[in-house]
Amino acid sequence: MAHIAARRFRYLGPVAAGLVLATPAAAQPDRPATAPAAQSETAAARTVLARLGVDTRRIDLALVPGATPQFRARTAAGRLRIEGTSPVALVRGAARTLGQQGSLFVSWEGVRNRPLALRDGYDSGVVASPFSLRTYLNTCTYGYTTPWWNWGRWEREIDWMAAHGVDTPLAMEGQEHVWRALWREQGMTDAQIAQGLSAAPFLPWQRMGNIAGYRAPLSANWIEKKRVLQRQILARMRSLGMKPILPAFSGYVPEAFAKAHPEAKIYQMRQWEGFPGTYWLDPSDPLFAKLAARFLQLYTATYGPGEYYLADAFNEMVPPIAEDGSDARAAAYGDAIANTAATRAAALPKEVRDARLAAYGERLYRSITAAAPNATWVMQGWLFGADKAFWTPDAISAFLSKVPDERMLILDIGNDRYPGIWNATKAFYGKGWAYGYVHNYGGSNPVYGDLNFYRSDITAALANPGHGRMRGFGLFPEGLHSNGIAYAYAYDLAWGEIDAAGKARPLDAWIGDYTRARYGKTSPALVAAWEKAIAGAYTTRYWTPRWWHEQAGAYLFFKFPSLDGAEYPAAPGDPAQLRAGIEALLAQAPQHGGELLYTYDVVDLVRHYASVRLDDRLKTAVAAYKAGDLATGDRATAAAERLAKDIDALAGNQQETLGSWLADAAAYGDTPAEKAAFVEQAKAVVTVWGGTGHLSDYASRAWQGLYAGYYWPRWQRFLAAQRAAAAAHQPFDAKATAAAIRDWQAAWLKDGKMWARQRPAAPLALARTLLAESDAR
To answer: In angstroms, rounded to a whole number, what is the distance separating the alpha carbons of residues 176 and 193?
Structure first.
């Protein structure tokens, strides 16, 4: 792990005075998973503030009792005093107070701070959260974002969590060390285990039972580094009073284990996105309880005990309910495979289906509490929206029926895409649950979100008398580092923006605080500019074009080229309002041009606007060549190429690039072969993904390197082939063209090119040029 910790940490934004830079992370000892007793909770909070660049000598922190998460901030005699019910409340209180005076802003793109300028007599009053828990992260985040993170990057993320009031995050790193130990005990060799574990960016879907052994083997060095890293992560989270959500056994077993236990009740599940079916051990089989308990025993011995344990047994997978409804063990391994997950509930009498679902739920819960008696079973509620044909309200009720209400926490993550499930299920029939949104899918990063929707939706949920045991609120992005304003606002609504009467402050008042914190000062003109930008881009709660004609990709430009492109729909949002907002923001450059986060925001909005206009050029080119209009097609193709290359140049200013992603992947390797493998895996997850389903371009990224080096070469080949066919008055061979592009993609994955970042020297000037170019005809 010293190799990882000591390497240069890639900072999330450009270097300049006033922005806190991530320093090289010192090598960390392999210390116990619990924080040293000598480190008090207030000291842990103070240390977070110090890392954020705050002069803590003038700040007093005090923990106070209280059942409701809250803080109070007051100033007197040149000092700031924060009282809070937890270390997270203390950090949250300090960050909010200092942000309101323009001294501190904590974001993924960078931490902006200035010297304290405290005014005596300030009193925030008691600021409370209407939620007892603020949850965060998604199982998929650990594939789309964190597979190459070191301790320095995780430390920054935990500080971000504390500043935004998060106290119940998913903590999924390091579990392959425990899985390996478990399967070793079951007689599997290290070679069998490694071959059955997917490559690092694809592990979330291995953990949820969707895939197994994809791009195997998993590096033993990677497993060890993540073991050390998880101990550091949990130590820091626990020192801040956070209650991390830890992994548990949900029933999926390696194929080699299934073959070695033909007497066990093991089902081969349905194929997911074209991957071979995985193997699930029925909770009624005696082996299930044994393996579940042993996993948690090994986990606790490695990382310490927990309170919340995540087990997602049926993520986009149908429960394997036997046709006869019996609970008898399969007579032979072959019979178990024959009884696949494709058997639907409709084929069973309702009482049989419900009984089996109730038994599954109860046994999953008891398998956790057998090893951790005081634990709460956590599951993501995504499956209830993703497969509504199976998960009817009656089926959900049956599955949850035998789990104690107070010992379960359902993360209702999809209210931006699958709203209303909690209403349809009477707030999950009395179970504890947390309300929230995925927002980001796959790490794909068009500019979108819906601030007014969050405001009205969260306040409505709180006011609804039927919300039952709604304990928490959370954001559950599959990828991070985009649309930070949406995350800042949503977590502010979860702590500080909604008063005791359930009303949220007007959005323009919040924008004033946000811009003052982010840029150091604000003005009516700046707020008005952001209001226009929000009206243009941040009125979209789900980016619908990311799935279109069974193709993934945030923009048409990011999708695999096809003739369908000529009919691609207009992007969500209001481009005229967005452009007006960008122009108004650019007019603020004399006042804010020296602020790097201001530049970052302008660049991102222009990059997005130009990408939407680039799609228009592609649509024109495809339609023109299809109609035999070579002149129009040539003009549109040339314009598309210029935009693609200029957007690529501008995107070098931003937090992540293809080059930074690949450099982080390579740094995790200890040998040239490992480095090359990690780079290829990192390329694959953000491009072709895998399987024979629709995952290609699911994790498309608006990154420098991909615009000019991946997406444009694909379209260039497609448009050139289309033009050649039109010029020769021959039918366009779409099948041959697609095959040629796929061959090029396969070669691109293995070419070893690292795509080093190229920063624009004058990003605001380039943004202005690109804005004009986007609208040129």
So the answer is: 10
Strand partners, 19: 112
Q: Cα dist. 72→83, 85, 128, 131, 229 in Å?
A: 5, 10, 9, 17, 34
As for how many domains the chain has, the answer is 3
Other beta carbons within 10 Å of 108: 18
pLDDT in tens, 170-223: 999 999 999 999 999 999 999 999 999 999 999 999 999 999 999 999 999 999
Same-domain status, 117 and 141: no
Strands 308-310 and 59-63, bridge-based pairing: unpaired
Q: What string of H, E and C letters represents the secondary structure of 703-761?
A: CCCHHHHHHHHHHHHHHHHHHHHHHCCCCCCHHHHHHHHHHHHHHHHCCCCCCCCCCCC
Residue 2 inside a domain? The answer is no
Closest C-alpha to 685, from 196, 6, 206: 206
pLDDT tens column, 444-465: 999 999 999 999 999 999 999 9
* Domain coverage including residue 466: 133-247+282-316+357-494
- % of the chain at pLDDT higher than 90: 89
Looking at 462, 494, 526, which one is the last position of a domain?
494
- In this prediction the pTM is 0.93
- Average pLDDT over the chain reads 92
Nearest CA to 82 out of 97, 101, 60 is that of: 60
CATH number, domain of 723, equals: 1.20.120.670
pLDDT digits (tens, 9 = 90+) for 368-406: 999 999 999 999 999 999 999 999 999 999 999 999 999
When pLDDT is averaged across residues 470-483 and rounded to a whole number, the result is 98
Tokens of 684: 């694959």
Alpha-carbon radius of gyration of the chain: 26
Asked whether residue 19 is domain-assigned, the answer is no
